[in-house]
Specification:
The complex is a heterodimer of chains A (about 260) and B (about 260). Chain A has about 260 residues and is of the alpha+beta class. Chain A has helices spanning about 1-20, 20-45, 70-75, 85-95, 110-115, 155-190, 195-205, 210-225, 230-245, and strands spanning about 45-55, 60-65, 80, 95-100, 120-130, 135-145. Chain A is about 60% helix and about 15% strand. In chain B, helix 2 runs parallel beside helix 3 (about 135-150).
Chain lengths: ~260, ~260
């Protein structure tokens, strides 16, 4: 019985993903929003380029998620091994840093510079924090206008930290969107490979955060099928709950 | 109304000022532990100044430390060691590398590095790292208390981002430092009314960098080793200095700096 319901659920979800391009629908808009924010903040900070590096879940390596500037296309997907370089240090220490170098030396971001042909002379790196974790690093590189050798200032570090809060929230949204895209890819790749999808669903269920989110989503979806009054009641309840939780520092204790 | 520790009020702080002899000290006989990204011991500024170089290794769930020979993975440790030895040219630095051992469990490795330094009884420990993960609050607090009781003076870089970072917000068991634009390391100040206690140079500081060159750096990470270097001088003159005495002495100096310069 339970198996039949899972099969039916799978068929429905396959149908949904066949018509919807998850990447275009979910991940791309978030990435575009990040890039827009990078571009706007780079102008404000008089930086030639800006980029976002995100920590990969398993290894702790950093991967470029989005970038602006002339090497933006070449930088996408490039990885920095865990704990290496300024970005690795900022990720681990949670400390924002400004580094600049004398003109007579070669770029210090050697590995990335070699791949992109870019020369990093000035760098402002700020941790991306979401809840209690550092999930990535926001970087601004070089100056866009004269004086080109003027190091980033402490005030600009503070401004970058404010942008980092917004970028971190978007990066978190992108991580969520990426999960949905991964599900979509697995389902569309070959609908006969149900075991693959089941294994993925199982791994999602085993992760308690995801499991709770999926449970909630299923409940809301079931309620929304009942009728407008139920939807309205559900929304009011959820909104009041969120309002209550935000207004108190602690969490609800219903035990 | 006057606050009891208002730095502008007349109190007895000047009486706590240490013997000015420390100003001419060089950190001879003092080894400073630095928990960081490693160090480039071949840099001309650091040659002969590195007492020990160990790095974290992860074996199962345990973190162990053993000698490493591949230097500095990020450049940060070399810069901090350079600041320490600029201020205390005869002090030695023990580099405890906590970066690059693993991607996950970074805070765990950092905690193990601090524990290693305390176990080795290093008198002065420089921490330019921190963590924001609440689950490390209690273990770090406990470890810092043990460090304090063991007589280790721990100096931590403050985090001036909106979120608190541990251990720099622990106020009793360590000294926390935030960057200022003042270029003179001897003119560090008392940070009145904040959890963070001292301000030291941390803006556009010229430091050694991996590979023999120099960089100009800005961040609280670089304010912290300034105080560490000065403490190495104080400890040379007063080898039995306790963390409590170190704090009192730094406070008195910072206060007299603040009064002198308005």
């Amino acid at each position: 019985m339970a198996e039949n319901r899972t099969d039916e659920f799978l068929e429905r979800i396959q149908g949904l993903f066949r018509v919807a391009d998850a990447e275009k629908l979910l991940a791309d808009p978030v990435k575009e929003a990040i890039t827009e924010l990078l571009a706007a903040s780079a102008v404000r900070l008089r930086a030639e380029a800006a980029s976002v590096l995100v920590r990969t879940a398993d290894s702790g390596d950093l991967k470029f998620l989005a970038a602006t500037g002339e090497v933006a296309d070449r930088i996408g997907g490039l990885e920095i091994p865990a704990g290496k370089g300024i970005a690795g240090f900022v990720l681990m220490s949670g400390q924002p840093l400004v580094v600049s170098e004398p003109d007579d030396e070669s770029g210090f971001y050697a590995e990335v510079d070699k791949t992109t042909g870019f020369s990093t002379k000035l760098l402002l790196a700020v941790p991306l924090r979401f809840r209690d974790d550092v999930i990535g690093v926001l970087e601004y590189v070089n100056r866009s206008s004269e004086p080109l050798s003027e190091p980033f200032t402490p005030t600009e570090m503070d401004i970058a930290a404010v942008y980092a809060e917004a970028v971190a929230a978007l990066v978190n949204a992108h991580i969520g969107a990426d999960l949905m895209c991964e599900l979509s890819r697995r389902i569309i790749r070959d609908s006969s490979e149900e075991s693959d999808v089941r294994a993925w669903l199982r791994s999602m269920r085993e992760n308690s955060t995801h499991a709770r989110a999926i449970e909630l989503a299923a409940l809301v979806s079931e309620l929304s099928e009942k009728g407008d009054a139920e939807v309205e009641l559900c929304r009011t309840l959820l909104e009041s709950l969120i309002g209550y939780s935000s207004s108190t520092t602690g969490r609800l204790d219903l035990a | 109304m006057t606050h009891p520790i208002d730095p502008t009020s007349q109190d007895a702080a000047s009486n706590f000022l240490p013997d000015p002899e420390w100003l001419s000290a060089t950190g001879r006989g003092v080894t400073v532990a630095m928990i960081d990204s490693g160090v480039d011991a071949t840099h001309p500024d650091l040659s002969g100044r590195i007492a020990e170089e160990v790095g974290a290794r992860i074996e199962g769930k345990k973190v162990t430390f053993s000698p490493v020979y591949d230097g500095d993975l990020a450049g940060h440790g070399t810069a901090c060691a350079g600041i320490i030895t600029q201020l205390a040219p005869e002090a030695k630095v023990a580099s405890i590398r906590v970066l690059g051992a693993s991607g996950s469990g970074d805070a765990q490795v950092f905690l193990a590095g601090l524990e290693y330094a305390v176990k080795q009884r290093y008198k002065i420990i420089n921490l330019s790292l921190g963590t924001t993960k609440p689950q490390f609050f209690a273990p770090l607090h406990d470890l810092l208390d043990r460090a304090y009781q063991a007589g280790c003076i721990v100096i931590a870089a403050a985090n001036n981002l909106p979120q608190p970072s541990f251990p720099s917000i622990f106020s009793s068991s360590l000294i926390s430092v935030v960057k200022s634009e003042e270029p003179d390391p001897l003119k560090f100040r008392f940070h009145y009314g904040e959890v963070i206690e001292l301000t030291a140079p941390g803006v556009s500081v010229r430091t050694p960098w991996v590979g023999g060159g120099y960089r100009t750096l800005t961040g609280n990470s670089f304010a912290c080793p300034h105080i560490t270097g000065l403490l190495a001088r104080l400890v040379e003159r007063h080898p039995e200095l306790t963390p409590f005495q170190a704090k009192s002495a730094l406070y008195a100096i910072a206060r007299s700096n603040s009064t002198e310069n308005g």
